[in-house]
Design a protein that fits this description.
elongated
Length: about 250
């Protein structure tokens, strides 16, 4: 997928943005993968996927899961499936649709209340903060104050999802040097993740519109059937009346 990330020389604010992208893409992906592995143990993941294949096929037919992702879910040797091959978009889809994790109180697409510290709420927050960071994509830069606030929020979520073992990796990312090529790489990855999810939303809206159109067609057919029944009832009543009148005339003769 081609990147729309503007080329820019590296400075403190562009590096801030790239660090946030890397934190979300690298550590965020691992946190979601580890969460999936806890809910559905790797040793039985193939059985879980097989049991949920009708649901996943529905997602594939709606183009929410693409052909490449489908191949990762159902390799030639089923037991060879591994969450290590799943991209972050697919991990989000599976966490929402495989069962084992309740929907957040406010739903998957709404920022949870600050008091909701459930695992599902934090998964939703990962996506929300991804969108928040991506809002800076056009300039691809974040000032220090904003960076520190975003980093603190994302770090807290990832530590809750992955545990204290994530602390060292996160802290290292905060201090590690990044050359311009590395920065652009992570900016592109965050952009691709956002675009993949936007494509899914567009497909869902398209399907929703199609369903509404079908519903309207069904209502129109229902109206036509009711009108036809009324006409048929009128014709039947007229026929009965005519027969009765003919019978009455015969008796008078």
């Amino acid at each position: 997928m081609a990147s729309t990330t503007p080329k820019a020389s590296s400075n403190k604010e562009t590096t801030n943005y790239a660090r946030l992208c890397r934190l979300l893409v690298d550590v965020g992906t691992q946190a979601l993968r580890d969460t999936l592995d806890v809910i559905h143990a790797p040793a039985i993941l193939h059985a879980v996927l097989a049991a949920n294949k009708p649901t996943l096929q529905g997602l594939r037919s709606r183009r929410i899961i693409n052909a490449t992702q489908w191949g990762k879910l159902f390799p030639v040797i089923p037991s060879a499936v591994s969450s290590k091959t799943f991209d972050i978009t697919l991990l989000m889809i599976l966490l929402r649709n495989l069962g084992g994790l309740p929907s957040p109180i406010t739903g998957w697409d709404t920022l949870p209340a600050a008091t909701d510290m459930s695992r599902e709420a934090d998964i939703t927050r990962v996506k929300y903060l991804r969108n928040t960071v991506y809002a800076h994509a056009e300039q691809a830069s974040v000032d220090d104050t904003t960076f520190n606030a975003y980093w603190r929020d994302i770090r807290g979520i990832l530590l809750r999802l992955g545990g204290v073992r994530y602390k060292a990796a996160i802290d290292n990312l905060g201090n590690e040097c990044m050359d311009p090529d590395t920065e652009n790489h992570y900016k592109q990855l965050l952009s691709e993740w956002k675009k993949d999810e936007d494509n899914i939303k567009d497909k869902l809206k398209e399907i929703g519109a199609q369903i509404r159109d079908v519903g309207a067609d069904i209502r129109d057919v229902g109206t036509e059937i009711r009108d036809f029944k009324k006409m048929l009832h009128g014709l039947t009543a007229a026929t009965v009346t005519n027969r009765k009148e003919s019978s009455d005339e015969g008796e008078l003769r």
